[in-house]
């Protein structure tokens, strides 16, 4: 009886986990930034303000570690995603709107 409760409990948790991963993903994450240090990335803030997943996910799938995998598979160049981050921040800033960082040290944190 007790054992059964535990198994049911686990499968509910596993289901919730899968639903979470397939949804919007983590609200904040740390992207691997090589020798310059990792890059903290406010994922949810971008989803809320940009309202278009494809602005980023046309470059890589909606999976944890997708950027590193695409680079390893030769589907993305090193710093290609970084350039997309920078380009959008620069263009947004040029329009006078609130934008993200454009300098190395404001993105890469050691
Ligand atoms: C400004 C860029 C950007 C936008 C816009 C964006 N994402 Fe992401 N997303 C990322 C990055 C970066 C990763 C991490 C990839 C990696 O780990 O290599 C990611 C990872 C994910 C993951 C898998 C990782 C996790 O947290 O579970 C999911 C799911 C996801 N995104 C869903 C979405 C959805 C749904 C939208 C639109 C509502 C969206 N994303 C919009 C950049 C973005
Ligand atoms: C808008 C944020 C942002 C800015 C500004 C930025 N970076 Fe990055 N950088 C990233 C992200 C995200 C990655 C990981 C994804 C990728 O490789 O495209 C990265 C990756 C890197 C890597 C690792 C490449 C590899 O895989 O070996 C280096 C080195 C790097 N950046 C150096 C710099 C330098 C130097 C500057 C300033 C001239 C800079 N970055 C500015 C976000 C940024
Ligand atoms: C298509 C446009 C676009 C892309 C692509 C984009 N950003 Fe941004 N980013 C924004 C805008 C607009 C803001 C400011 C408004 C906001 O915080 O929602 C911002 C804000 C930020 C901030 C500051 C958040 C804060 O709390 O002040 C960080 C850090 C950041 N972006 C990192 C990144 C990284 C790293 C990438 C690439 C993986 C990226 N962004 C890709 C548009 C973009």
Describe the fold and architecture.
54% of the residues lie in helices and 5% in strands. Residues 5-21 have low confidence and may be disordered. It has one domain (26-107): Cytochrome C3, CATH 3.90.10.10. It has helices spanning 2-22, 43-50, 54-57, 66-72, 80-94, 104-107, and strands at residues 29-31, 39-41. It has 110 residues and is mostly helical. The protein is globular and about 35 Å long. Strand 1 and strand 2 form a beta hairpin. The protein has six helices and two strands, in the order H-E-E-H-H-H-H-H. It starts with a helix and ends with a helix. Strands 1-2 form a two-stranded antiparallel ribbon. The chain binds heme C (HEC) (3 copies).
Topology (elements, then pairings):
Layout: H1 2-22, E1 29-31, E2 39-41, H2 43-50, H3 54-57, H4 66-72, H5 80-94, H6 104-107
The protein binds heme C (HEC) (3 copies).
Order of helices and strands: HEEHHHHH
The CATH architecture would be Alpha-Beta Complex
CATH superfamily, by name, is Cytochrome C3
The small molecules bound here are: heme C
- Strand-residue fraction? 5-15%
Strand line-up across the major sheet: 1-2
Tally of DSSP helical segments: 6
CATH fold label = Cytochrome C3
Low-confidence stretches: 5-21
- What shape does the CA trace take? globular
Number of domains: 1
| Helical content class | 40-55%
Oligomer: single chain
Major β-sheet annotation: 2 strands, antiparallel
* Alpha-beta classification: mainly alpha
Mean of pLDDT: 87
Distance between the termini: 50 Å
